[in-house]
């Protein structure tokens, strides 16, 4: 039973920002709050959706939660939790879990779960290899889709070959195939993910019972030192830094240099520059198919679309190579540390039965955990980049036919509206008349642009509804860092505003003092300077190249097993996650101390330090 004395605002009490009512109503009806939602608890999913959502981009939540719920509820049949409902208000995505509380239903689901999940655990390597094949086939299908175009005349081959299909049919066929592929990708994404977390959580629960004093971070360090594809893009950047030094073109890469300036300088460097550019092409395919966000926004472009991120990391890596310092991720050190921890805690167990269980659980965790990060490269990055770029092609075609001014305006339409616009254009092309879209969409796009801008300036509550007595979904605790204590701190935020300390999850050990750099979006990553402490809402593995530049990291959202926490440990970077309000409480230029072992951030300066200090 929820504590009615403590409550966040009810969903029904949240007003739509004046002037944006039409843009709010344009989101699908099943994403709008309804009166009965007041009876549930919701929290703002700022981990995955930290910025207001364009209308088309909401397909990322829709496809993801369709798949997550299906595998939780119907496929693997998790005993105590089903799927996640999502709603959107003022461009912000709120989510609410669906718990299973009936003991009879839990018992029934437990039997089904053991039959299904245990099969995956027993055949993990074979099934995961099979999964990679499926993903590569799906990617190849997306790459093979034809270009989006409507010619003035069908090629003569259409008639001479008896093809029997005109270009306007191909247009809608391409769109539907790309949309189907995107939904299928998310099904593949969740085939293994919850099982990967489940294996770790089972080991985590065992350790908490067997070793009551053990910290969350210590348990997480027992699975550190993984090899996963999501780390490969940064490894390629480091390889390119070494190549630059070996080819004697390292002086080309200067802090603040634009991509065009760097490429022009390499062209002028003759054969050595050409040799480095050939190495760059080797890295780009496929490893630069990683975007600067987490795969949920169309404007978080891939490294291949915008080389700024990888090239901006090169000066720092090159300086370390010149100085004879290692630029490798400290995998060997992490593995030695984890083996020592695993052995030391094993010796504390009293019985052979406990030791056997411990051995079984840690072995399984080591087997499955690389998937938790590795899958992201194929799903949220490589395939998602192909998906959004194909939608851009439709945007370009519609813009050329007057539906709106710019290619990117297509993302202000929902995926249903985009299909209707494609059909409108297809009908006009086939009949020889003018489409009606140019009279409809420009005003709507302008209205929604204004709404997105207004929502970006609007602060939203971190949660909605009555606070639960307990937060017993381990994924919510470990991924989002939401506990009863977190919720209490959110509720009492005004009372704690004068404190110079922020508490969060101890993500990665180490104590560092330095100047803060508050980064509120991926577009601001380039403002980071050497040795600063990154303060952000959330980060993701594709930001790894900046980890060699910063001294520590702090986030608003995230638990001990969030992506930011995992990556920080893998790079040996002190980090505190899940502070709730770091980006609001800390200002760029302030001196702060990050204690990643205790999960505490201390603001040492009362006032902001000037930018040029």
UniProtKB/TrEMBL annotation:
<feature type="domain" description="PEP-utilising enzyme mobile">
    <location>
        <begin position="529"/>
        <end position="599"/>
    </location>
</feature>
<protein>
    <submittedName>
        <fullName>PEP-utilizing enzyme</fullName>
    </submittedName>
</protein>
<dbReference type="InterPro" id="IPR051549">
    <property type="entry name" value="PEP_Utilizing_Enz"/>
</dbReference>
<dbReference type="Pfam" id="PF00391">
    <property type="entry name" value="PEP-utilizers"/>
</dbReference>
<dbReference type="InterPro" id="IPR036637">
    <property type="entry name" value="Phosphohistidine_dom_sf"/>
</dbReference>
<dbReference type="InterPro" id="IPR008279">
    <property type="entry name" value="PEP-util_enz_mobile_dom"/>
</dbReference>
């Amino acid at each position: 039973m929820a504590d009615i004395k403590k409550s966040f605002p009810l969903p029904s009490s949240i007003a739509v920002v004046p002037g944006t009512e039409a843009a709010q109503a344009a989101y699908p009806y099943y994403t709008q709050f309804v009166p009965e939602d007041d009876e549930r608890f919701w929290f703002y999913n700022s981990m995955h959706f930290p910025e207001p959502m364009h209308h088309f981009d909401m397909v990322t939540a829709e496809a993801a939660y369709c798949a997550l719920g299906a595998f939780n509820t119907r496929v693997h049949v998790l005993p105590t939790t089903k799927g996640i409902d999502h709603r959107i208000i003022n461009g912000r995505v709120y989510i609410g879990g669906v718990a299973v509380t009936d003991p009879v239903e839990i018992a029934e689901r437990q039997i089904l779960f053991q039959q299904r999940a245990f099969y995956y655990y027993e055949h993990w390597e074979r099934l995961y290899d099979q999964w990679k094949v499926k993903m590569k086939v799906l990617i190849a299908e997306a790459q093979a889709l034809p270009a989006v175009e409507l010619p003035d005349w069908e090629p003569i081959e259409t008639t001479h070959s008896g093809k029997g299909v005109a270009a306007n049919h191909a247009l809608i066929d391409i769109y539907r195939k790309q949309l189907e592929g995107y939904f299928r990708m998310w099904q593949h994404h969740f085939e293994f993910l919850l099982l990967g977390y489940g294996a770790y959580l089972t080991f985590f629960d065992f350790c908490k019972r067997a070793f009551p004093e053990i910290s969350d971070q210590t348990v997480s360090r027992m699975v550190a030192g993984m090899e996963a594809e999501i780390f490969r893009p940064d490894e390629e950047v480091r390889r390119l830094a070494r190549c630059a030094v070996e080819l004697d073109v390292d002086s080309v890469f200067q802090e603040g240099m634009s991509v065009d300036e760097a490429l022009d300088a390499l062209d002028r460097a003759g054969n050595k520059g050409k040799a480095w550019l050939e190495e760059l092409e080797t890295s780009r395919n496929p490893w630069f198919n990683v975007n600067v966000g987490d795969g949920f926004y169309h404007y978080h472009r891939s490294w291949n679309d915008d080389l700024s991120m990888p090239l901006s990391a090169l000066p720092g890596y090159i300086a370390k190579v010149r100085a004879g310092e290692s630029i490798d991720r400290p995998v060997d050190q992490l593995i030695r540390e984890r083996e020592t921890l695993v052995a030391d805690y094993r010796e504390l167990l009293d019985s052979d039965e406990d030791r056997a269980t411990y051995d079984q659980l840690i072995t399984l965790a080591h087997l499955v955990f690389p998937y938790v990060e590795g899958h992201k490269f194929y799903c949220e990055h490589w395939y998602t980049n192909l998906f959004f770029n194909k939608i851009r092609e439709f945007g370009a075609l519609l813009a050329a036919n007057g539906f709106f001014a710019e290619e990117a305006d297509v993302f202000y339409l929902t995926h249903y509206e985009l299909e209707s616009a494609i059909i409108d254009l297809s009908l006009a092309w086939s009949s020889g008349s003018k489409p009606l879209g140019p009279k409809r969409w420009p005003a709507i796009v302008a209205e929604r642009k204004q709404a997105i801008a207004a929502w970006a300036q609007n602060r939203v509550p971190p949660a909605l509804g009555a606070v639960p007595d307990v937060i017993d979904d381990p994924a919510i605790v470990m991924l989002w860092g939401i506990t009863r204590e977190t919720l209490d701190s959110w509720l009492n935020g005004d009372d704690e505003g004068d404190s110079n300390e922020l508490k969060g999850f101890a993500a990665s050990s180490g104590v560092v003092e330095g100047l803060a750099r508050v980064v509120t979006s991926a577009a601001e990553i380039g403002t980071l300077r050497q040795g600063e402490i990154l303060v952000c809402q959330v980060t993701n593995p594709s930001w790894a190249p900046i980890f060699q530049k910063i001294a520590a990291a702090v986030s608003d959202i995230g638990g001990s097993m969030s992506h930011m926490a995992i990556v920080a440990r893998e790079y040996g970077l002190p980090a505190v996650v899940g502070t709730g309000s770091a980006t609001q409480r800390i200002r760029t230029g302030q001196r702060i101390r990050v204690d990643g072992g205790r999960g505490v951030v201390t603001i040492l300066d009362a006032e902001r330090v000037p930018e040029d200090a």
